[in-house]
């Protein structure tokens, strides 16, 4: 995705709160939890686009820029960057809004990635996406 550190790219797909149970050994938020939020966010968009079930087939270029802290509001934004016959690519960004005792801090981008999804039928086989 193109570099833009002022404004999230795409639509808000998911918003949640980073909790103590999601921390790693350093006390920051675990990267695997952030990846899970990204996957959920991308799947929401992929399901909307393909009008049905999807699976994640691969992930590209995941970059963690700065740590996320307990209590941060975690927002996943995304946009579809490619639609193939049965697959889609979704460019995703995670932004956090720190909530401090003295007010709401500036939001910042903490992670970006591209997730690839495949539309599937009831038997789990690739299903053609209707692009109309
Ligand atoms: C995703 C899956 C259905 C694809 O089945 P498949 O028989 O390999 O399908 P195909 O080879 O026909 O490829 C289907 C599409 O996936 C794309 N694809 C396959 N491997 C890919 C990869 N590593 N990265 C990106 N796209 C990929 C193909 O290019 C094709 O896209 P297109 O139709 O738009 O041209 C199958 O591999 C699967 O079920 N994987 C497990 C998914 C899963 O459990 N995910 C985790 C939980 S959601």
CATH level-two architecture? Roll
Count of beta strands: 7
Largest sheet: 5 strands, antiparallel
**Radius of gyration from the CA trace?**
16 Å
Range of strand content: 35-45%
Mean pLDDT: 93
CATH H-level name... which superfamily? Hotdog Thioesterase
* SS-derived structural category: alpha+beta
Share of helix, binned:
10-25%
Helix/strand order, N-terminal first: EHEEEEEE
The helix tally amounts to 1
Distinct small-molecule ligands in the complex:
coenzyme A
Examine the coordinates and then state which fold CATH places here, giving the name of the CATH topology. Thiol Ester Dehydrase, Chain A
Shape: elongated
Structural domains: how many? 1
Strand order across the largest sheet = 1-3-4-7-2
In CATH's first tier, which class applies? Alpha Beta
Please give the alpha-carbon distance between the first and last residues: 25 Å
Low-confidence stretches: none
């Amino acid at each position: 995705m193109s570099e833009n550190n002022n404004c999230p790219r795409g639509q808000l797909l998911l918003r949640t709160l980073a909790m103590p149970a999601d921390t790693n050994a350093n006390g920051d938020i675990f990267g695997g939890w952030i990846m899970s939020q990204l996957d959920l966010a991308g799947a929401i968009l992929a399901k909307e686009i393909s009008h049905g079930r999807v699976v994640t087939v691969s992930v590209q270029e995941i970059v963690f820029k700065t740590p996320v802290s307990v209590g941060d509001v975690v927002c996943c934004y995304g946009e579809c960057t490619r639609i193939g016959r049965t697959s889609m690519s979704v460019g995703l960004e995670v932004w956090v809004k720190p909530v401090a005792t003295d007010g709401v801090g500036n939001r910042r981008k903490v992670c970006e990635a591209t997730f690839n999804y495949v539309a599937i039928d009831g038997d789990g086989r690739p299903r053609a996406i209707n692009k109309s």
